[in-house]
Amino acid sequence: MVKIVTDTLSDLPASLIKEFGISVVPLNLHFGTEVYRDTVDITTDVFYQKLMSKQVFPTTSAPGPGIFVELYNQLAKETDAIVAIMTSRKISAVGESAMQAKNMVKLDARIEVIDTQQVAGALMLVVITAAEAAKAGATFEQVVSLVKDTIPRTHVRMAFDTLEYLRRGGRIGKAQALLGSLLKVHPVLGLKDGEAFPHHRARNRAGAVDFLVNFARGFAKIEKMVVEDATTPQEADDLVERLAAFYPKERIYRAKVSPVFGAHVGPHVLDVAIIEGKKEAGDIPVPAAQKAKGLSPSPAIL
Amino acid sequence: MKATIETGQELRDMFGAAARWLEKSASEVDAINVFPVPDGDTGTNMLFTMRSTMEEAFRAPDHSTAQVMKAMAHGALMGARGNSGVILSQVFRGLARKLGDKDGIGPKEWAEALGEASRTAYQGLSRPVEGTILTVMRDAAEAAIAAAEKEGVTLTEVMEVAVEAAKRSVARTPLLLPVLKEAGVVDAGGQGLYIILDGVLHYMRGEAEELQYRRPQLVAAAEPMPPKVAPLAAVKEEPYGYCTEFIITGEKLDADRIRKRLDRKGQSLVVVGNESAVRVHIHTLDPGAILHWAVSLGTLHQLKIQNMDDQHVDFIEMQKERLPTLDIGIVAVAAGQGITELLQSLGVSAIVPGGQTMNPSVRDILQAVETVPSDKVIILPNNKNIILTASQVQNLTSKKVAVVPTKTIPQGVAALLAFNYEGNLEENTRAMEAAVKSVQTIEVTKAVRSTRFDGLRIKRGQYIAIVDDEALIANDDEIEPLLLRALEKTVCKNVEVITLYYGADTRASQAEEMVQQIRLKYPQAQVELVRGGQPHYNYIISLEG
User: Which domains are assigned to chain B?
Assistant: First the structure.
């Protein structure tokens, strides 16, 4: 079976990691001299408590290739095919480490490292898509081409209360156009070519959430959908209820941003990610085996 | 973790790591270079200076820290390029002054050496400017010296404090140097120095290996600043002249005298060196005269003369490529400093001063359209009487121009908020026109004459409230009751945001009181107060819902 590797910026809930046997490599979170492995040594809730109580602003770093070398060596004992589905390189160097490690190991297993140009919920949906296919018996080539086919159909919009965290972390990209507004605005950002771009400015939180709903409603066909929050689960649940008007509620994944991602987006981020369905049903590259079994993705409960 | 630096090899490894760290971000440092001349080469110049420093480090006569440090200072002086590079060479000279006779470097020696580096850097300049690499060096040195006082402190700990201070110092540079604030950047030389110090710190922490997988985090400004792009492209200023650099070698050279002699010959003068070699950097309109004099002192080496106006043109081209999406530029008509700043903060690239009773001409608007660095432009007239003028511009320019017929400032703001950075001109025009309908405007002003209007009898000097620049809905001798009555007639349940822009003639305290009253009356709405500074209207009120 093809083994799937990703990083913690995919925000995958523990239940899905376990169900699909996905290897998730943690990034590092630094509070001054304290270092935590993302989601391993620190949870999102604890992280935000620390963020509120500490004066020092957290920074983050990508792990070096060493951890991937070990991981590849270990996975190669049970498989001959590894697909690493990584966060956009414009956002983190973790994918670079995964790639360098590939060139450092000599294994019989084939390894493909893919820069998804996505992050958070959007990355999560791509990873789930690949993991489902792998579980259903897809080959190395099939998984790789499925991922590459899915990436351009994956879209995300994130509602912010402030872009201050993105600015401080230096990951603001083109969204810097929205900085410094003298009116109170709630920016909504998307991802394009692997980095943040400004899409909308709402005048209040409700307007930003409305925008997310309309964004999701704009897709004729939806293959997968996830709603993520940082510290506002009730708001995210309410958003799910509204999205349920046009997409089956039980198929909407719920997730929480990881601490490292949280350090860059702040405590009030709310996002919706979607994999857009293909135009003709016959083209949907879901392996026949899975269709036959009638497997549907199980929603994650956090 | 380093407790001390014992050998010259460690010193080489340490600054080698710093040089490689700088290399990763040199181009980004180039891109924020606006002072003293926006020519976009600060990062590259500092990197070349570091490379020359490191090459010389391997030519030291022995492997003691003292000899390697001296060799590095010599390499920095000989290879320095550009303003920041020359100042960086002074930093190495200062380090060598303190460390050039010591074997082994502990926390105290290191802190003192940083202090000497800071002093030496200032000495090289006839007119040191704060908010630059100098300030960053001084802040780092002062923090290091204070940290080194502590009993039992390690070298690494001292450097941690210094780097943190450097980082904060870089973030503050726009507060000290207005040209940085205008450009929306931090000082490039300061940024470069911070990266070098940070690279040194990583080495001390034993993280030199990891640096190859990471990139330096650039310091952002302490206060968020909107990138103001239009002036950069539009303003044609005095010529910058020629950046002139050379080394004089000879005997008994006196850097101080050379500096005094050249002080009035140009800008950004840096003169550094010793009795046998002096490096000169100056921005001058007449490099010939300077070289003519300099050759009388000794022989000249490494001459470099560059036309900075050419460099500046290249820099602007580079900036254009890096601009936040400016596929579509926006020109707005507005009056009042607060409103002007507000519109700029929402993405307007050029403001044409004007409004009620001071309508701009077609030429005024055309000029603004032409300065915007974009082929597609949207105009927001923000006044009924300017819409027609604005639409004339369409026929007078080769650019593609659309007019969104906004009649008031709140309509203009609503249109701006609806701007979609990914949309094309047609989509945006449509979205902005639709957004205009979602906002109601109340304008409060004084009646200039007695009249009857919409069934109301108005006395001269009374306050009147007008909705959407059309209907007069209330008049009163007092402004507060008038405003509240106007709101009663217009605010309905679905109004979510009420924004008050108070004018040039309205006191802030009065406006704040007004806002409190409105908040009490409309607790469901988000009420905001903005200093508009507009003439003519005491208040402009926007109702969004």
Answer: 8-227 (1.25.40.340), 242-314 (3.30.70), 325-436 (3.40.50.510), 439-544 (3.30.1180.10)
Distance between first and last Cα of chain B: 59
Residue of A nearest to B344 (CA): A181
Provide the pLDDT for residue B232. 36
CB contact under 8 A, A177 and B347: yes
Torsion of CA A160, A163, A164, A166, to 10 degrees: 100
ipTM, 2 dp: 0.78
Predicted TM-score (pTM) of the model is: 0.64
Lookup: tokens for B82: 């550009």
B-contacting residues of A 86-145, CB under 8 Å?
Answer: 93, 96-97, 100
| Yes or no, beta carbons of A180 and B422 under 8 Å apart | no
Identify the helix (H) or strand (E) that includes residue A252: strand A252-256
Tell me which chain B residue has its CA closest to the CA of residue A66.
B210
Distance CA A284, CA B189 (A): 53
Which of B434, B361, B417, B371 is closest to B397 using CA atoms? B371
* B63 vs B214, more confident: B63
Tell me which chain A residues have a C-beta less than 8 angstroms from the C-beta of B215: 93
Q: How many CA atoms lie within 13 A of A75 on its CB side?
A: 26
Which backbone phi and psi does A2 adopt, to 5 degrees?
-65, 130
Which tokens go with B475?
């008049």
Give which of B157, B162, B155, B161 is closest to B138, Cα–Cα. B162
Question: How far is the CA of B209 from the CAs of A64, B51, B116, B169, in angstroms?
Answer: 9, 19, 30, 27
User: What's the order of all strands across the beta sheet hosting A34-37?
Assistant: A34-37, A28-31, A59-61
- In three-state secondary structure terms, A115 is strand
How far, in Å, CA of B542 to CA of B498, rounded?
6
Peptide bond connecting B61 to the previous residue in cis, omega within 30 degrees of 0: no
B435 touches chain A (CB under 8 A): no
Length of chain B (residues): 545
Task: Decide: residue B484, CB within 10 A, 0-12 exposed, 13-18 middle, 19+ buried.
Answer: middle
Range from A235-244, A288-297, B33-42 that averages highest in pLDDT? A235-244
- DSSP string across B55-74: HHHTT-SSSSHHHHHHHHHH
Q: CA of A3, closest CA in chain B: separation in Å?
A: 25
The domains of chain A, with CATH numbers, are: 3-151 (3.40.50.10170), 153-280 (3.30.1180.10)
